[in-house]
Amino acid sequence: MKRYFIHTFGCQMNVNDSLRMSEALSKMSYVPTPEPENADLIILNTCSIREKAEDKMLSALGRYRAVKASRGAILGVGGCVAQQEKDKLLKKVPYLDFVFGPDNIAKLPEVITRVQEARERVVETAFVDSEEYVFPRADAETSRGKVTEFVTVMKGCDNVCSFCVVPHTRGREVSRAFPDVLVEVADLARVGLREVTLIGQNVNSYMGGISFAQLLLRTAEVPGIERVRFTTSHPHDLSDELIEAFRVQPKIAPHFHLPVQCGSDRILKMMRRDYTVEQYLVQLAKLRAARPGIAVTTDIIVGFPGETEEEFEMTMQLTEQVKYENQFSFVYSPRPKTGAALREKEWGLVPHEVKVARLERLQKLQRRISGEYTQSQVGLDVEVMVEGRSRYDATKRFGRTPENRTVNFDGDAPAGSFVTVHIERATPNQLQGKQVAVLQGPTVAPPPVELTVPLHVPAEA
């Protein structure tokens, strides 16, 4: 058996892409290995959202060069950096064998065969026309034994925010037909999965024959599925219809990742984010009214070109006002071909040490707020979907609440069960407790169910 190792950087889209790569490799008689030193094939699935991610990729390539030298391993780079750099990566890294973009995962077996048999160095980074694009699909049998899985519903982004490289690395928005999504979800449910996460660069703008709100509602109705999640969203697509879906369907998990990026309207305009802070807060208030207790998380960029100390304080005030459950915050880094990179000198560069100092202040504030949320759970009984053993202590179980809070607990319920856990301790990042009741056991490959979806959408939809 040939062995492979995939090193994944970046977002959940990349994680999902790595899963689809694994399925393609299994059909070529490759088996995974947790140790790159034992691999015959190493793939780095890369992210280019931030410069640091690219630096990590190049550092990892340097480490894996020794494996190539000692074992003759094939070395490839996929993902967004591959799409961005194309054949320049082969020139920059002379021991690299192949480069392929996100649209070309289906060609991975062909690429590897060309490397092995023709001794070529291969580049496959052409975007696939939207009419011909085939979405990567989770293989139900490969997912058997899992509890949760990603399901791709769209790819690409049309917003062209001035800081973001996604339109250049993932292409324009393409939505997957909703019957295909629902059939995939049903296949996953038949092998015992209890939760699916619908993913895309901007899922709220989904146009696969029905609205995204309708897609969520239909997904929640698939027999066997108990929780539906999604990521990621743009505030201008947070429609009243989507908010209403949270109110009427409890299987849609009460967690919403809604990137605000900044607390200054001036900076938001420079970022090409077509909303104001006030508009963001109005929609957020509607969401919280429709689903009390919903956990809201966000993304924030610190030190965008031209950001003043006063504007950074606006971001701090927004964080305090909204009280995000958590946030992913980063210092601004220029990305190739983006509007901000082209105009950053005109707008005014924020010194690196200033950006870092601001980020540390923001993250300190968020840790305090996150800690307040988790401490408020101590003494409560919460519902947890069991996902398996804890990564930190093999004697404990691990799962998440509907709000996506991580829980490590004493218990014996198998993966796929829903249990009640009494929370005894908390840190800003996780809850700890003990199992006190089993609410629902795992499903074991229920008999096939007929999933009926219309082939044509009524005009009013």
From TrEMBL:
E.C. no: 2.8.4.3
Keyword S-adenosyl-L-methionine found: yes
Keywords: 4Fe-4S, Cytoplasm, Iron, Iron-sulfur, Metal-binding, S-adenosyl-L-methionine, Transferase, tRNA processing
Span of domain TRAM: 375-437
Catalytic activity: N(6)-dimethylallyladenosine(37) in tRNA + (sulfur carrier)-SH + AH2 + 2 S-adenosyl-L-methionine = 2-methylsulfanyl-N(6)-dimethylallyladenosine(37) in tRNA + (sulfur carrier)-H + 5'-deoxyadenosine + L-methionine + A + S-adenosyl-L-homocysteine + 2 H(+)
Annotated positions binding [4Fe-4S] cluster 1: 11, 47, 80
Cofactor, free-text remark: Binds 2 [4Fe-4S] clusters. One cluster is coordinated with 3 cysteines and an exchangeable S-adenosyl-L-methionine.
Annotated signal peptide: none
Residue ranges of every copy of the MTTase N-terminal domain listed in the record: 2-117
Top-level division of the source organism's lineage: Bacteria
Residues of the Radical SAM core domain: 143-372
Ligand binding ([4Fe-4S] cluster 2): 157, 161, 164
SUPFAM superfamilies the record matches: Radical SAM enzymes
Location(s), subcellular: Cytoplasm
Cofactor: [4Fe-4S] cluster
Summary of subunit composition and partner proteins: Monomer.
Family of this protein: Belongs to the methylthiotransferase family. MiaB subfamily.
Function in brief: Catalyzes the methylthiolation of N6-(dimethylallyl)adenosine (i(6)A), leading to the formation of 2-methylthio-N6-(dimethylallyl)adenosine (ms(2)i(6)A) at position 37 in tRNAs that read codons beginning with uridine.
HAMAP family named among the record's database cross-references: tRNA_metthiotr_MiaB
Protein name (Swiss-Prot/TrEMBL): tRNA-2-methylthio-N(6)-dimethylallyladenosine synthase
